[in-house]
Backbone:
């Protein structure tokens, strides 16, 4: 009598690990880019000529044309990878909100901040990159014109959301991958808030500086 | 003269179809070194014999008195009322099956996870009942014991935002348990074997690093550290075939049990 033995086994998959790593790596890359970006634009505080000089270097090396779209793609990838953790269903959101309220636990609240800023940053950055790419080349005067023509609220919102998302996100990657441990956690909490404060402060001074450039 | 405590307790008996979940206030005079265990026992003996809650050891060892105390999961027996405000709110631990009032069934949950993850030593060695037990370095034995101190009270699971949203998430206690076997040289499971059971969004990759598990653990176990070690090892396991050889050797320290000291 012939038996019917199936040799089908459950295929081993490496997807979960790779997806998780990719989320962390894209996040860290975006954070590093954003910090460089803040320093680059912040050079206008010293002088618009420095910013224009840097912009010229980026332009003749085609970096601005290449990096812009790449960053947009990385951001989209990061968003899609991270969205699996978001409270997608209404029930999940209300359970988490209720949980955070009762727990009175800072890190639990910060995750909600992370999820909300993620959505805001995604929308605003898309608009920001689109505007920049449509108005190349980058120059201190072009940025100043935007700031003086009613974009300040937009950029302040973006600045604060990016600062929070970036700082909390880097801290989380450190925790999740075991770089931040119980013994050094309090030090890294301080460093995270310092980074966020530095980023936001630098951004605010930059925006103020743009208001004082004659266009 | 102690403070007058107001203790609000969630009351609900799932077996009684007329029972509706509601909060009931009790009042009690506090005395020195009163624990919530003492307070609840007194309430049951003097005010309401139908009040349900679990206790066994009264010393933070059995893990049966886990409950949500003023919003945070903790053990009632090792919580002194003097550390709490005069108004105390008690809820049963979420996630676990409610037996009634403050009593929950953590056993079924832990048993099902334990069976699913096979949380016991996996060894191919033939058992010889006459052989002397294998020796283990003192340092390693202590390291394993540190993780073995988990009393399965369920506080870390109840405090976890991920576990609250996704009921299939295994929680810190399960990953800590796997870390314990990962440390144990008698366990023959490789990184690949561990990956198969906890290398997914229900396991290590589901953790969002909210740190609440570690912050509420009554035994102060290094839960987040263990999650980090296991996650790093299993994430590496998923890419080890695509990273260059020199990097691979550096990351594994030449053996499979890297991550733990």
Residues:
């Amino acid at each position: 009598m012939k038996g019917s033995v199936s040799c089908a086994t459950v295929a081993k998959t490496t997807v979960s690990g790779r997806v998780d790593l990719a989320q962390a790596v894209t996040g860290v890359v975006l954070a590093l880019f954003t910090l460089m970006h803040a320093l680059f634009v912040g050079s206008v505080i010293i002088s618009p000529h420095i910013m224009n000089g840097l912009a010229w270097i980026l332009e003749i090396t085609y970096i601005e044309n290449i990096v812009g779209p790449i960053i947009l793609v990385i951001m989209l990838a990061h968003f899609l990878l991270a969205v699996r953790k978001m409270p997608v269903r209404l029930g999940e959101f209300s359970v988490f909100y209720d949980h955070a309220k009762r727990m009175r636990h800072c890190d639990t609240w910060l995750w909600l901040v992370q999820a909300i800023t993620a959505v805001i940053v995604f929308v605003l950055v898309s608009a920001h990159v689109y505007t920049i790419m449509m108005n190349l080349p980058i120059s201190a005067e072009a940025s100043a014109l935007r700031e003086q023509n009613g974009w300040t609220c937009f950029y302040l919102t973006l600045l604060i959301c990016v600062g929070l998302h970036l700082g909390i996100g880097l801290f989380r990657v450190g925790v999740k991958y075991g770089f931040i441990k119980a013994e050094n956690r309090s030090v890294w909490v301080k460093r995270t808030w310092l980074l966020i404060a530095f980023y936001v402060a630098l951004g605010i001074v930059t925006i103020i500086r743009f208001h004082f450039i004659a266009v | 003269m102690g403070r007058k405590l107001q203790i609000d307790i969630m009351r609900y008996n799932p077996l009684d179809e007329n029972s509706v979940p509601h909060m009931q206030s009790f009042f009690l005079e506090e005395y020195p070194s009163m624990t919530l265990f003492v307070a609840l026992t007194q309430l049951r003996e003097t005010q309401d014999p139908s009040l349900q809650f679990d206790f066994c050891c009264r010393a933070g060892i059995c893990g049966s008195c886990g409950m949500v105390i003023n919003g945070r999961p903790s053990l009632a027996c090792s919580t002194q009322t003097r550390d709490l405000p005069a108004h105390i709110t008690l809820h049963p631990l979420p996630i676990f099956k409610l037996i009634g009032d403050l009593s929950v069934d953590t056993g079924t949950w832990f048993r099902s996870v334990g069976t699913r993850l096979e949380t016991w030593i996996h060894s191919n060695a033939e058992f010889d009942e006459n052989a002397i037990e294998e020796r283990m370095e003192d340092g390693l034995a202590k390291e394993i014991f540190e993780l073995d101190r988990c009393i399965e009270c369920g506080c870390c699971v109840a405090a976890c935002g991920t576990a609250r949203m996704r009921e299939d998430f295994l929680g810190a206690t399960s990953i800590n348990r796997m870390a314990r076997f990962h440390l144990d040289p008698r366990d023959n499971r490789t990184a690949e074997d561990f990956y198969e059971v906890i290398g997914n969004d229900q396991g290590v990759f589901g953790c969002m690093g909210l740190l609440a598990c570690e912050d509420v653990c009554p035994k102060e176990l290094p839960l987040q550290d263990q999650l980090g070690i296991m996650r790093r090892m299993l994430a590496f396991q998923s890419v080890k075939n695509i990273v260059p050889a020199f990097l691979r050797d550096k990351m594994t320290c030449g053996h499979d049990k890297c991550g733990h000291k």
Observations:
- Chain A touches chain B at residues 12, 14-21, 84-85, 87, 92, 95-96, 99-105, 107-108, 111, 172, 175-182, 185 (CB under 8 Å).
- The CA atoms of residues 1 and 182 of chain A lie 63 Å apart.
